[in-house]
Amino acid sequence: TCAGQLKGKTVVITAGPTQERIDPVRYFTNHSSGKMGYAIAEAARLQGAKVVLISGPTQIEPPEGVEVIHVVSAKEMFEACMRYYEKADIVIKSAAVADYRPKDTFEQKRKKQPGTWFIEMERTTDILQTLGNQKVDQILVGFAAESEHVEEYAMKKLHSKNLDLIIANNILQEGAGFKGDTNIVTTFTKDGDKKEYPVLAKREVAQFIISDIITYMERHHR
Ligand code: PMT
């Protein structure tokens, strides 16, 4: 792809983990570093897009020229996504959003007590599903982090969440998934295209993802 192919487009990208609070000192989270999503933000920016990066807590620097919205919980990420959805041409959901959060949270630090502590968990809202249900003409791109039956589960998510593309990664594969600087992905489009990539730096993976999205949009005259 040559530069500037997303000029005039607004791209909303989610990245990183969410943190689900238990009390002022404890929370549930996951291993996402934000690297994959930040790399996608940079690649979209390089193609001239206006980029909004909705990010959970990470330790890394956002790319230059990108508007960053910091969020903590799945609920905050949901609200930020909804706020930017209408103006978005493309939404790419690389964040690792918590599927569950503690049902009860404590204002004060919960003291140690004898015996077992049972924490009841409730479901968070599936952001991608909600965006899919409310889609007008946005290009909606999801991720699938799977540890088995990768293609089958990815295709299920592509169709049930009303996506245009899905990026599957097998998080148990060496060199793929959370934290590291590389990933191994396969992209699937709604039209039935499948592209399998080798192990690559997340920056390169990001460029291929953006270029697959551009190809898809050209085919759909968007
Ligand atoms: O951040 P890194 O360390 O670089 O790691 C990158 C990554 C492994 C996090 C990334 O490549 C990745 O796979 N991201 C998606 C992680 C995930 O939560 O996948 P999932 O299969 O559980 O969810 C499917 C899709 O639904 C995802 O696009 C997710 O953003 C979205 N989702 C999930 C739950 C929820 N409540 N709302 C959502 O929108």
From TrEMBL:
Any single biological process term in GO: pantothenate catabolic process
Region (Phosphopantothenate--cysteine ligase): 11-222
Documented EC number(s): 4.1.1.36, 6.3.2.5
Signal sequence interval, chain numbering: none
Cellular component annotations (GO), alphabetically ordered: phosphopantothenoylcysteine decarboxylase complex
Occurrences of domain DNA/pantothenate metabolism flavoprotein C-terminal (ranges): 6-215
Protein name: Coenzyme A biosynthesis bifunctional protein CoaBC
Organism: Halalkalibacter alkaliphilus
Taxonomic lineage of the native organism: Bacteria, Bacillati, Bacillota, Bacilli, Bacillales
Residues of the full protein shown: 181 to 402 of 403
